[in-house]
Amino acid sequence: PPIMTQIEDNSGEIRPPIIDYVLVFEYKEIDDEEENKDSKLNKAKERRTKFEKLMAEERIKVQIEDIGNLRFLLLTTSFSRLCEEAEHVKLEMPLAEGRIEDPVTGCWDRLKDKLRTDTEDDFVSAPFTLQTPDVFKDWDKPEIFFRPSLRQLLTNHILINLDITNKKDIDEDEPMSKKGLPYLLHKGAYKDAFTIHTPSIGDPDCIEEREERLKQKAAETGEKFSKKSIDHDTIEDDWSKFCRKPDERQLLNDTWTKIYKFQPMWKIRNYFGEKVGFYFAWSGQLITSLIFPVVFGLAIFSYGLYLSIMSYQVEKNIVSMNATTTNSSSGIAGLISDAKELVFDLLDVIKESFDNEVTPFFALVMCLWGTLFLEAWKRKNATLAYEWDVDSFSMSEPDRPQFVGTHEKQDPVNPEETMWYYPLTRQAGWFLTSGSVLIIMILMVFISVASVILYRVIMMVDYCQYMSAVECVLVTTIAGSLLNAISILILGRIYEFLAAKLTEWENHRTQTAHDNALIIKLFAFQFANCYSSLFYIAFFRGDPGENGVLGLGPQYKDDCGRNNNCMSMLSFQILILMIVKPVVKFSKDIILPWLKELFRNRKCCRKSNKTDPVDETKVKIYTPQRQKIRDYIEAEYKKPKLGDFTLGEYTEKVIQYGYLMLFASSFPLAPLIAFFTHLFDIVTDAKRMLWWYRRPLSVIADNIGMWYGILQFLNVAGVVSNAFIIAFTSQWGKQYNEYEKLWLVILFEHAVIAVKLIFHITIPDMPRSVKRTQRREKYQVSRILHEAAVDK
Amino acid sequence: PPIMTQIEDNSGEIRPPIIDYVLVFEYKEIDDEEENKDSKLNKAKERRTKFEKLMAEERIKVQIEDIGNLRFLLLTTSFSRLCEEAEHVKLEMPLAEGRIEDPVTGCWDRLKDKLRTDTEDDFVSAPFTLQTPDVFKDWDKPEIFFRPSLRQLLTNHILINLDITNKKDIDEDEPMSKKGLPYLLHKGAYKDAFTIHTPSIGDPDCIEEREERLKQKAAETGEKFSKKSIDHDTIEDDWSKFCRKPDERQLLNDTWTKIYKFQPMWKIRNYFGEKVGFYFAWSGQLITSLIFPVVFGLAIFSYGLYLSIMSYQVEKNIVSMNATTTNSSSGIAGLISDAKELVFDLLDVIKESFDNEVTPFFALVMCLWGTLFLEAWKRKNATLAYEWDVDSFSMSEPDRPQFVGTHEKQDPVNPEETMWYYPLTRQAGWFLTSGSVLIIMILMVFISVASVILYRVIMMVDYCQYMSAVECVLVTTIAGSLLNAISILILGRIYEFLAAKLTEWENHRTQTAHDNALIIKLFAFQFANCYSSLFYIAFFRGDPGENGVLGLGPQYKDDCGRNNNCMSMLSFQILILMIVKPVVKFSKDIILPWLKELFRNRKCCRKSNKTDPVDETKVKIYTPQRQKIRDYIEAEYKKPKLGDFTLGEYTEKVIQYGYLMLFASSFPLAPLIAFFTHLFDIVTDAKRMLWWYRRPLSVIADNIGMWYGILQFLNVAGVVSNAFIIAFTSQWGKQYNEYEKLWLVILFEHAVIAVKLIFHITIPDMPRSVKRTQRREKYQVSRILHEAAVDK
Q: Are B181 and B511 in contact (CB under 8 A)?
């Protein structure tokens, strides 16, 4: 259509060009002789040639930059092509006239407004169509018509749906329907494919460069240099020219890191796409929802502490009355032993304070809180899905390049084509294998946990008598924990490897199915790995039966320390796990890459590049603007990959959530710890994603997928686990006999599940206001589209 | 559009006209004086006048027939208006080219094909549009373009959305947005509004008339008359002309009553609409699913019978060995006492056979069966909703005429209009009231049950000693049951009245919300009313504690007959309830109306009409064809109303289902009884709906609504109830001590719920084939519509 070319011209004027995608391969000048030798390299080159031809046909502009021995292809999809793709996938886009007004009425609304960081307005939307493009918002501004995440998404969708298959290639060994970008990456024709961040004045490189320039200037003029004098907005330099306005990344950073306000959900979604958006929305919702348990848990803990101190004082008084004379050893030794005793007493007091008569009530509240949280999230999810216009979205997912069909049949959707498929019976066989491996690995976890216990008990009973107390603690508790940690680590690694392989062999057609299969495998193992030792402490440690641990004999007992209070031990263990886990993650995500970067900067790359005298001549060819782009692309390429960001983050958070839900009754401070780690995590994640790591490819999603089901499972498991902990582990439950304890379990479970069901039934899945707005949207959209049609 | 008028002409040629709707009012010639006196009559007339003017504007043809003092308005909506309404509500209609082929492949498919009674093909469908009407199936045949149920549905939708409000009326006392047909009925402007069956040669009236004619003919010719000689297809008489082809009602009857085949779901849906269709589909699915429990239950029962007979023989042998001499009393008295003993023994043997060591296993299987049934139904539901093209349907529901808004606000959907609403806080107040009334009524049920027990126990202990055995049984068991039945009946009636009133006061905006509120109230009460006495027998009767029933004293015990086997008593009670309930329903639905009809025919109406000499002159005015229509309309008007058919039927079936699920462990023959009553019910319902009752208004639905949730609740309640029955009531549970019994409960519940959850998660909600067909449909529809657009 003629309107397209005009827009195209407008978009051509933007400097620097928007780079939607970057492809990389190792560039080698191959002469003819070598070509014949290395058929693999040859084939790769052939595939690339085909692919680049196809890209040109699809109106994707390619700019080539050679850096070192790598060739970078910078892809920019033309605006008209993006529009076509948007129409093709029936993307919902906001309508210019469809602003949804959000009336601020009550006090609550006004407070929420204060805490808001989003300034974006919600517009009603309709599937994009090139028939009446001018009804859509910002149609006259092609450079911002598609939000940043959409440009990448659409480009990615075009690239994965290209097909380099030739009719003559059809006899090749792997039958597959489409051979797009994933296939080329899989076959090594390209080394890497990634998207880059939009240039921003907040970029560390930028800040560094400016500082240097200002220092130079300061040195020249003799003025004093201070970091504060860098004013990003007013400085007119190369970077400012390089960065496009609005500087989305800086803006996002500024609003995101204000932890006392809501997250800028719209900005996150606009920049990173819906899948990441939903993760942060969920995480934020969890933090907000945790405030109530935090306060309640603190109250319970304080009350417990008060009780514990009281009973300690009473005990102390009795002891001191009984034994005033024996404690008269004075001097330094006496002081030390006094101090030691005080510390131990203090620890005991704190440990005891986790377990008191209001504990069951706390567990009850937490179990119900879990349901309310999930219900609230379901509503939030529906609201976001509606606001982000993804509730009716379904983008056709291509087959994974690794998918191998073994049988051919008629395409069920388009009867004129054939498709390859993999028989269900064979896939079922693989599922059985995966299941067996999972069960074996979980058994291994149990065996490993049991061996460590066995080791500890035998050491304790048979060898501790020949050692000092410190040595005893060293070879039993410390060594035991160490062995446990090592075995968990090793088993975890082995299983991660196996799970990936098995899921590969299950041969799923789409990436989503593949990811879901992987998630469920990993989680089931993580569940056993993370919680089995805790379950051991809660239910078995205190009371190993008449024959001792594993029937070794009555003297081999594994009790729970002083007073044999397993509840306290459990609390202590959870406390440690909840603190250690985030620290490990923090070092893996932040410190390790930082160290790597430091090491690389010190030693080789940056310095050698600058001082390399051979390249000096070549460098001079480029204009400053182009050099800037080259440097920027190189820097982006060198950033660490984020990997499957959401998978890792969800796993971490869900395991934490599991501690909250499964052992609520034993540790009322768990919400507090979770609250702060999650809050800290959001801030570091923001920094990580915006500045330190490569930009992840944006993906459209309309919910948090598999994880919702897993959270529900944890909620239900929590009810059972808490019921038994209250009845059999807690001090409160000790006042009842075995029969009454079982009644307690039954009553607790039935009452909580009943209330959960009532919550589930009575709370609507979608807020009333969203339903109303949806109805209004339908009405508005048809009106706007009708008017547009009439105008034509 | 011009195409419309042409079709209109075609449709005008059909004889007799299709009658979509009938309105009735009492016709009185009112002169001016009387008019002023009776402002109510006057107002009604005014409203009717307005309404009829609106109908004429909407192209609804009205034919007036005066019969007796009633005036019937026979409405026929013009085809063009129906099309417009169909477009307006975005009705999905099948596409001419979109036939979905259903490949018959395996043995199972071929068997299913044999049992099929439907010959209808499924076509892919698209929302109806007048832009390209010719892509839709049967567009060239306006008389069959809309299936019978749709004509009524659309006409009804037009009628309820008419609005007789005048701007000057706005100050009237009841503020309401729309004043359509429901408003006029509510205000008494029309006496009745109903839809009529399509004339059929299977109609009882028709058959009667023919028989008479043939008898006359036979008498004239002297041939012998036999009923068999009536051949519906070849006889050319008034009725055959009167009936349109195809004779849907006769066809439906012929296929529906073949109980060894599947129900003709498509025909039911085409004739009665989707809501009734879903009810029968659900009922049919329940019957088919019951086959497995029936067989399994019979096996369990046979095994139990075998065990019971064995133990009886052993016992008998011991008794006979011990007491060979005492039993020597001969003569008639001895024979009678022998026979009596034999009968009692037989009853005991049967009673005992319900309760044996495989009972827990049967309960387990039934609990899981319940889940599988619901999962299977969910899939069936999805399939039907897809095939019937209702999965994406949403017809705007009008406000109920009884709805009273007290506050005005901006319409959230169309901001230019205002609407009336009823504040949530006030509605919440009514909900609380309803809840309290419900609780009070349930308490009344408990009190009534308890009083009857008390009465029985006191009679038994204090007065039975002065009576004979027969008298004792009479004043205790029989009188107790009678009192119980009476109190249940009275409480039920009171509550039905209260529930209707309360739901009215809750002031729901739409009929669906109103119905749901009513359903949930009625079911909650029914649950207490039907099951509380059974729960008493299962858990309390055998063991009233140390102080006897209600602490009256240790001698006041209420045991479960011989051997104090409450399980047997429970089984027996359920057996009686499961047989009595359907019999009561059957007499209410079939025998009572039949008696009424008989009574009316004998006494007054029909005869008096025919012999009335005054009317004789008037009757002669009409042509035979018109007289036929008049007679037919009158006959339809006199048929009993079906009322809320699905509400009553679902309640009945769901209560039956409750016996199956809640007390599965006690009565393995329950599935058998349920199977036969349901089968019998479907056949009588078919007859009832087709021939004996008025035609119900067709309603579009895409599922069974509220009832699915209630069935799920019964499933879960069944797990708990069975767990406790197995552990505490069954003979099998007696071998364990109290502590072990509780563990049994916990284990049973957790295991069953876990397996249920696994079923729920792993069984997809929609069959794979439907998903695939859906995808294909999307593809096909866009292709067909695209081609149609290109052709234009």
A: no
